[in-house]
Known about the structure:
Number of helices: 25
Number of strands: 26
Structural class: alpha+beta
Strand order of the largest sheet: 12-11-26-25-24
Shape: elongated
Amino acid sequence: xxxxIPFAGRAALLATLMMSVSSVAAVRLAELQIFDSDNNxxxxxxxxxxxxxxxAQRGIIMDRNEELLTNNIQSAELVADRYHLREITAVVxxxxxxxxxxxxxxxxxxxxxxxxxxxxxxxxxLLNNAKAEMTDEEKxxxxxxxxxxxAKANRMLEYDPEVVNQYYKKHDELVAEILYPFLSHQQxxxxxxxxxxKRFMTREDIVEKIAQTAxxxxxxxxxxxxxxxxxxxxxxxxxxxxSFDTADKIRxxxxxxxxRGLVVQSDMRxxxxxxxxxxxxxxxxxxxxxxxxxxxxxxxxxLAGVDGFREYRHNSRxxxxxxxxxxxxxxxxxxxxxxxxxxxxxxxxEQELDNGMRHFRAxxxxxxxxxxxxxxxxxxxSRPAFDLNTKxxxxxxxxxxxxxxxxxxxxxxxxxxxxxxxxxxEPGSTFKVLAVTSVVDKGLMGINGWVNCEPFSVGxxxxxxxxxxxxYHSLPVWGVLKKSSNPGAARIAIVAxxxxxxxxxxxxxxxxxxxxxxxxxxxxxxxDGSNIxxxxxxxxxxxxxxxxxxxxxxxxxxxxxxxRMKPRLIDKIIAADGSIYDxxxxxxxxxxxxxxxxxxxxxxxxxxxxxxxxxxxxxxTKAAIPGFRIGGKTGTAKKVKAGGGYTDNLYTVSFxxxxxxxxxKLVVMTVIDEPHPTDCNPGxxxxxxxxxxxxxxxxINVLNLTPSDPEAYEKYLDSKQESANLKK
Length: 728
């Protein structure tokens, strides 16, 4: 049959039709590529790329002898990415696969392609069911209400929100069902009737963690009222500290169920090798491995490192696609810290402080060991303390669950407070060395010059300064330290005058924070010394409050021939490859006094521990070790009452010891708060000095120190052994 339209006309009509179709396609492509590119590009990227974090190893911390103090335990964590768990294409993939498995045809389909077709069938059905029936005008109105750059919102335009929310709920329940066998042993902490409680995770807990229904409900109500909303967490940690075996099983289960938005990634957990020791110095990290106290916090930027990542590309159905554009960035591990701490000495002071506090029934206490020539902190312990791994409270009485023990005011004791650095206390007689330094170094008095030590008053109506129940009449300057005379110290300070005294107070660094790489209590608190009454009391350690570390560094300066060093806690910062990043060399702050003044002071401090000689018995004979020349100074200060004034039976006592005094290797500061001895009066010489001696005897053996009188030392050791045998 012949057509009535000529060939040329038919050809022209066909060409016109093809051009029209091509033009429509071209316009649509231009719209997609040019006008809607900002909307579609994020969607494509979101659908194609998953990123797995590769955690950096946190730098390790070691002592001066390179004994490891921290570990990084590699484990795995399960993270729910709520962004993908609220993406319609990802959600229907999991739901479709789950529905297809219950289709009667599924068991008969042995070919993978056939099974995929069945999954696609259910997927298409779910998507079609979720599509909203809208006119173009309704669709345009809805589009006008959203941000044109919000790719996800634009993709959701054609879907019914109610149906989509039903899909989300069913998918959350599916996720919970798949994960529950692996997470049922995870514990959840909650508060019931004001009391903390732990219980095991349920399926409902998993759903709630993902859905965050309470927050969403609050946001709906807040938005309706025009009030600020709360943020929704997109990265939700469902489980931490999992073994790699469990992690592999979860990965297999997730992959088998075709679930997206769940990532099992490597996790680094901080662990402490000796968790009951050095807690205030080391500090601890939070659940995100971020330092929260101690050097862990102070050196967070050095220790943390930088995490790496690995990218995976996949199609919209969740299938991983090999791609040469996949990116990988190796993690940059943190720097390592080598401390000045010697764990051999640290173990000794922890044990001896606990023994002493237990014996004297004390409330709080600390010991600090300093190497005077470098300012190195060799050991530091405070009580109460805490277990680095479990956060349990540690006192001299033992370990207790965190939150169980309260102080006399009903406050929970956590052990976080570092008594050695953060407390301020009235030091009492250990402060008298400042007055002696002022007059001797300025040449106003010699160390052998005599001082009137009779009781006297300064200012009208002021309370007399005395040594009750003693009256020493007069003593040489060094004897004022040996007998710890309050009137003697006050008169020496008056000779020195406030301006000179203040000069040395500042040279010793007491007017500033102590300068250690730990939280500290700041500068000392000082009454106005231009007032003669205040000044006279400052001279013997009242009307002034310092930290134990401040006083330790004062005596370290005397032991170092008058040169003040910065307290040093970090010996070296070391890169992961073993190279030295920073030497952290010792820092000399200033010369506080002449070497001759320092030698005179050490001579005076040695007399404090002697039982015989001119001026009689010193106040710290219980610190003496036969065969070694020991020096030091006792301190005993009444505690201030809450309403003002001083208590009659509560004291803070201390002893600053130098070992050996003729060639100082160690300065040991011991401070005991509120001791209640049963066999003596509470004082620096009766409580703190014996604790020092117990530690010092062990230091001698560990450091192999040479006695000045070997024969006397051997005789002392023999007598101790005989006493021990008799007790057996």
